[in-house]
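Quick one - inputs below.
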Amino acid sequence: MLALPDHLVIVPILLPLVTGAFLLLFDERRRTLKATVSMAATLALAVIAFILLSLADMEDAAPGARASVYLLGNWPAPFGIVLVLDRLSALMLVMTSLLAVASLVFALARWHKGGPHFHTLFQFLLMGLNGAFLTGDLFNLFVFFEVLLAASYGLLLHGSGALRVRTGLHYIAINLAASFLFLIGVSLIYGMSGTLNMADLAVRIAAVPPHDRALLEAGIAILGIAFLVKAGMWPLCFWLPGAYAAAAAPVAAIFAVLSKVGVYAILRLSPLVLGAGAGASSGLADTWLLIGGIATIAFGAIGVLASQAMGRLAAFSVLVSSGTLLTAVGLADIAVTAGALFYMVSSTLTIGALFLLVELVERAQDPAANVLAVTMEAYGDGDEEEIEEEVGVAIPGTLAMLGVCFGLLGILLAGLPPLSGFIGKFALLSAVVGTGDEGSLSMITWAFLTLVILSGLFATIAMMRAGIRIFWAPVEGVVPRVLLLEFIPVAFLLLLCAAMTVQAGPLMRYADATARSLHAPAAYIGGVLSAQPVPPPEGNR
Amino acid sequence: MELTLAIGIGVLVGSGVWLLQRPRTYQVIIGLSLIGYGVNLFIFSMGKLRMNAPPILKSGEAVNPADYTDPIPQALVLTAIVIGFATTALFLVVLLVSRGLTGSDHVDGRES
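Output:
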């Protein structure tokens, strides 16, 4: 028998699944009950994610600790599906659950009334995300991708309106096509290597005969394209700004993690499968990631500068963040990866908070006076007016509070000191400078450095312009009515970023350990393949 | 047999990709379905094509793996069919909603 703590690894998948299914039993009118259950489950998820983080971090003390590999159905590794908990997946779990808590609290103020089954879809999305972060099997990864995508289709349409349905249509079509690419990639990999287990694939890839290698590499590349569509690498990213900007605020905030799933999959597979042990296929993806990532930063930065609507600004920031991370993965260096991990957490929390704040400040703007109304369909027009006056405590000094948050987010987004955005970018850039041989940097590294710094400048300009237009320009502006419940999540995410700044030392140590284990996958492979099934209890034979 | 299957997959996926690029939502969904069929056949073919070879072992006998076909692609195909079916159904709903809201079956919701 496994002890109870050993089963903790699968809880982040089971808990949202059970919660989401349980909530289906109740009528939409029992909102308080649904909201309470959903909130409790999400908070429990956050607690579990932190426990798993501490478990993953202890692995060094007790190598081969049982908690790290969970054999589903008690089949040993290459034959059954495994769940693997290591530092990277634990970090992703914690990041997801924190952002989930924030966006759920925000949704409780009014958005969860905007359509049916919000909480169920939200929980299923969390299930898919957690599953994708934990699984150690390629086809299982596909299944969890589909779970999170199916939930995200529903969530994107949440609140309805012509704009959401139109972008939802594009979003679903593109993701369905990407899922087919995913399947083609996975089946090619299986056909050529005979395994779907990531660790087993990493072992077998070096021994693939030369005449099969081209097909195997094609399979890996097609699989990579499916991930890059999710991550939003240029030129596969044109769907992203429209979809993210059209989504309801709490949905857009959790979508900030969604694009990181693609980045996660690349970050997990590139060093593991295409690392130094891959023989002739080693480093297959690196050049593509470098070039594509740099193009993504450039596209995202220009998009940030060109955005009139705040929602689009936030959506293009997602692209900048994705591009920076993809380039960092392409550099395949331990120190760069460590910096990138810190940057990823900071930028995801920041962008999530920005999506939430955008909705609050846009309430202040008179839709008729908005120049954008000409170029853009009004944002969720019909239902906005129908919503009855919300009950709840409105925060005092609304504009001042929102302004402070907006300013802090601008600083975080641009990567200016003293907040965590700066630390992330600094760690990343100083590591990038250190990659060159004897101080000489390649062209591509220079381009990366320049673009990251320029994208920060562009973000500053864009945020300042938007801030002036929203907070200073209106002479007799309408003060938005912001509930305390809607302000708390934004403040919570900002506090997390501040905490990341204060605790930067331990966090960087963790990120460094994560990057080390990613680039030395022997421990991961050994852990997965050597995990022993649990012997059946005596008496049950 | 390999050639027939390859041509079949090629025709399905080729027509699917062409339809996917069309401006009508109905064409897009038919295109996605065709690609789905092609991909399912492709997964199936990754287990090597075998005639008269069962995928499930008989119990109680000595087993020669060479007499059996690879069961994994069949399991994968089953999963892929279910998921593809579900997502296509969901897409169909969105398609109808879009048609109702915009009064047009263009993918952008308006004729351009």
